[in-house]
Amino acid sequence: MTRRLLLSYLTLAALVLLCLEIPLGFVYSRGERERVINAATDEAESVSAFASLSISAGRAAQDLPERAAHCAERIGGKVLIVDGSGTLLASSHPLDPKEESGLASWPGIAAALRGTATADVRTSTIGGVQYLAVATPVRHGVEKQGAVRITVPTRMVSERVHHVWLLLALGGLAALTAVAALGFVIARWTGRPIRELEYATHELAMGGTAVPVAITNGPPEVRSLAATFNRTAARLEHLLASQRAFAGEASHQLKTPLAALRLRLENLENDIALHARGSLTAALTETDRLARMVEGLLAMARLDESAVERERVDLGRVCAERHRAWTPLFEQHGVWLALAGDYAGEVLALPGAVEQILDNLLSNALRVAPPGSTVSVDPRHHPPHERRFPHRHPHPHRPAGPGRVELHVMDEGPGMTEEQRRRAFDRFWRAPDAPKGGTGLGLALVQRLAHASGGEVVLRPAPRGGLDAVVRLPAVPARPGGTGNTGGTGSNGGSADTVGGVGTGTPGRIPARRLQSTTPGRR
């Protein structure tokens, strides 16, 4: 801002100086030209009057050469005097025979012999005089007796004009320097509170604490803006703190009664009639769904409460670990879980964000995948010059990185319409045909985690039907000389084999508590 203000001050000052100095310089140049023309004309008329008297007295041959030489020496120029026929009477400098015979045809002398005084002036680009010749007729009564031509040197005039232009340029430069110094002080004084306001706004936008901006410096408008910002930031911080506190406290307070409710319902199983067992099972299912919803809200509250720094995460290793952990559960439902793609390298993400993103996406995919279908996890690395998601605006907090990594989770379920894909990230929203048990928080949490990690997530139709959930994260630049494995191998040596696109990882069980907290439904 300081540079822009200073540039505006200098531009305005330069325009004012140009509008003043350029006309002043040309006015001075024109005045110098008129002065030297008038002086030369007066000198020529004086010599003409003397020549007229000398010719009338018959003393032209004796008086005119001396007069011409004296005049030329005094003005430092050249003087020519001719009679009415153009014959040379006197000259202050020698002429060759060819020049002497053609004097009557010279433009100035020819006009003077016709009775017209002339001034031949040639000027430079900036108004200086480069050449000046004045011719005046010699008269005696009404008769024309000859002509006088005076050539005046213009070096002194040109030097004076150039000197004035130089003084004007130096004066303008000095004025611009003074304006620059004064403008810099004013710009710094004006811009300091605005820079502080910009820094505080950036910190607030990045999730930091709202630091009050000093309102004692700067123009009145800036002070008023700073006071308004302080009130807005304080109110926003209070609202966010209240929201986070409510979400966290409500989630914590609901967990205990939900656990007690489920325990009481389970204790009723032996004492309830057989025809009422269906209602009891439905009640237990809804209790589990409410517990998962509470866990999702608690996860979002934790995400809002802490602004954690991003760290380097080996995407291949995380994909292999989650593949091994989820494979047994997929096999129980008759769904194949495949891990495909080349080695994607490291990405920048919040601690634990990639694991939570994968758990939620795999839980959603398993919920809608029909038996016998395949769910694939496919990480892909894209160089910086490749552009993805041209229809979406980048997230405002995403840094410019050397490249991006796309994590695809594709199922072969019923998929979603375009309208449903647009609304899928809304909290508590579920598609009309969604399977029972979902909470509508899974994709909302995935989107929050992706944005907080500097990435984004979109839903697209999968090549074989179903849904393709694409999470894009910033890639970490490869180390010089480093090499990456392929085939989904993690950096720590862990791998997940694939046979015909079907995962055959080491069997394992997902802890019940983790399943409950990381499998919120999508629809």
Summed up, the helix count is: 12
Strand order of the largest sheet: 2-1-5-4-3
Low-confidence stretches: 385-401, 481-523
The count of β-strands is: 14
Secondary-structure-based class equals alpha+beta
Task: Spell the H/E element sequence.
Answer: HHEEHHEEEHHHEHEEHEEHHEEEEH
Mean pLDDT across all amino acids: 76
Question: What integer value in Å does the Rg equal?
Answer: 48 Å
Shape: rod-shaped
Distance between the termini: 49 Å
User: How would you characterize the largest beta sheet?
Assistant: 5 strands, antiparallel
Q: What share of the residues lie within helices? A: 40-55%
Residues in β-strands, percent:
15-25%
Descriptive key words:
523 residues, 52% helix, disordered C terminus
What do you see in this structure?
With 523 residues, the chain is of the alpha+beta class. It is built from twelve helices and 14 strands. Helix 5 runs parallel beside helix 6 and helix 6 packs antiparallel against helix 7. The protein is rod-shaped.
Quick structural gist:
With 523 residues, the protein is an alpha+beta fold. The protein has helices spanning 2-57, 60-75, 97-101, 107-113, 155-205, 220-267, 277-305, 315-332, 353-368, 418-423, 442-452, 512-518, and strands at 78-83, 88-91, 118-123, 129-140, 143-152, 311-314, 336-339, 346-349, 374-382, 404-410, 456-461, 467-474, 498-499, 502-503.
Draw up the topology in text.
Elements: H1 2-57, H2 60-75, E1 78-83, E2 88-91, H3 97-101, H4 107-113, E3 118-123, E4 129-140, E5 143-152, H5 155-205, H6 220-267, H7 277-305, E6 311-314, H8 315-332, E7 336-339, E8 346-349, H9 353-368, E9 374-382, E10 404-410, H10 418-423, H11 442-452, E11 456-461, E12 467-474, E13 498-499, E14 502-503, H12 512-518
Parallel strand pairs: 7-9
Antiparallel strand pairs: 1-2, 1-5, 3-4, 4-5, 6-8, 9-10, 10-12, 11-12, 13-14
